[in-house]
Task: structure prediction
Amino acid sequence: MTAMEGFPVDLRAFHNEVEGHLLAAAAREEARAAADRFAAGLDRLPEVERAEVARRFAAEHLVLSQASWQRTARRAEELRREYEAVYRRLRARLLAGVLLAVALLVTVDLGVLSSV
Result:
């Protein structure tokens, strides 16, 4: 969906999609570069076999990168949930403290007003 179609564009989703494509392209390029470096050391192999080794190396590198990203994303989600739970508890404690302070102030104020 684009703005040219007359529909609103969710810029955050668009940004995330573009970023994902850029990261994937960078990962493919990184895998190809690593594969080329690895295959360059195999100078005794014929060029066809060296190209096949490089292709397989790049494919495995991408698989490992994807697995690493997925582990990182899972851990980030776990940490987000943990931090949100801590934040909720802290917010509840702060609210309880504020309510207690207000109740104390009202009690003291009523005590002072009743003694006057």
Q: What stands out?
A: The chain has two helices and no strands. The CA atoms of residues 78 and 94 lie 24 Å apart. The chain has a mean pLDDT of 91. The radius of gyration is 30 Å.
